[in-house]
Amino acid sequence: MAFVVSDIDAAMAHWTGDLGIGPFFVMRAIRFKEYRYYGAASEPPEITIALAFSGAVQIELIQQHDGRASIYLDRPAGLHHVSSWLTSAAYGARRAQLLADGLTVAQEGVIAGSGIRLSYWIGDGPPGASSENASQGFFFEMSDAADDAHRGRVARLETAARNWDGRTPVIEIATKA
What we know:
- By secondary structure, the chain is α+β, with helices and mostly antiparallel strands.
- It has five helices and eleven strands; from the N terminus they run βαβββββαβαββαβαβ.
- It has helices spanning about 10-20, 70-75, 90-100, 130-135, 150-160; strands at about 1-5, 25-30, 30-35, 40, 45-55, 55-65, 80-85, 105-110, 115-120, 140-145, 170-175.
- It has an eleven-stranded mixed sheet.
- It is globular.
- The two termini are about 25 Å apart.
């Protein structure tokens, strides 16, 4: 579950202090590689991402730091997207199927440093939604975070949450451009 926030440090303080969820692992000032916005190669936004777990659910906070075109500015507050994690092979096959089914890729890229591929999808909205309400919902993200190359990283974050004693609520992760 991902939330777009205007102040990531205040949001992390709320989640850790008020809700008891943490620790958050923060990657600051990152940019996607191979970034596309609604199908067009674009200059990627600069964002900060913070990740924590509550049980088996990953909580992601995202703050965008510039005005470059992105879905984070399209829908800039609140619950933004839910995600499914696939292997790299399954990601490619599922991406092709979603395109064949007529869904639209709103944004896609590769996270610099980790190499995780991701795409954000929009469609007609949930069953029964009117077309006016469909654009107001959240996005569906698909990533290859379940690939063997990424499983260890995800498992370490989940283990950190299980063992968290409330100290060290934020852990800064150096990022590679």
